[in-house]
Amino acid sequence: MARRWLITGCSSGLGLALAEAVAAAGDTVLATARKPATLEELRERHPDRVLTTALDVRDQAQVTGAVALAEDRLGGIDVLVNNAGYGLFGAVEEVGDQELRDQLETLVVGPWRLVRAVLPGMRERGSGHIVNVSSIAGRMGLPGLGAYVTGKYALEGMTQTLAAEVAAFGIRVTAVEPGGFATHYGTSVNESARRLDAYRELVDPMLATMRQMEDLPEIGRPADFAERVLRIVAAEEAPVRIPIGSDAYTYLAQVEEAARTELATARALTEHP
User: What is the CATH number of the domain that holds 178?
Assistant: First the structure.
C-alpha cells in the first residue's frame, strides 16, 4: 500500500535523498524546503508523486499551510519526517542567547510544531509514523557543538515521550540517529559570533574535521540513509531510537560502555557503605 509522506529540509543531503527514494518506491511525498526552487528538479523527475512547497519550520503559518496542503492534495499524511536543521559551532561559553534560541527553534520547536499539526489526522485515521531525524549527537557530548547537541538531546526526549503517548492510537514514533554522511552539514555549519582563544586548541580540530567530512571516502552516502529509513517505516516493529551507519554503532557502543562505567562509579560514590 502506497504511503503519503511529508518531509522537511529536502533542498539537499539526507532530506533530498529520502524524498527521491520515497518517490522511486511508488509513494507520494510533499517535499518541503525554505526555498522551494531547490526542489524543482526533484518534482520534474517525479511529477506524479512529488508535490513541493515552501516550509520554514520556524514559521507556524507555513507549518499549518504545508500540513493542510498535504491533507488536501495527498489525502492525508502517513509519514512525517522532521529532517530540517542546521548546525551551530561554538563552545558553551561562546554561544549567545539568540544563537541558542535560533538553534533550538529549528531543531526542537519546529519539529514539535509539525507533530502538533499532523497528530489530529493521524489519530483520526488510527495510524501514522513520525520520524525525527536526530543524530549520534543526541546521545553524546561533542566539544564545540553544545547548542546542536542540546537540540538533538531535546528532540530525542520528545520522541521517547511522544512514542509512549500515541502508541494507543496506532501511531509509531522513531528517532533515527545518523552517523557521518556525505552532506553539506559540515561545510555549512555556522560559527558563533563570539570565539574565545581559550577554546581554540580544543574545538578547532573538530571544526576542521567537520569541514572536510563530506569528501572522506568512507563516509556514508545519503542514498544509504534513505534506504534504511524506508526499511524502518516498512517494518512492523522497530525500536524508538535507531542509529544509522556503521560508525554510529561504533560510537554509540562506546557511549553505552562509558555510561555503564559512569553509573557504577556514581553508585559507589553515593550509596551507603
Answer: 3.40.50.720
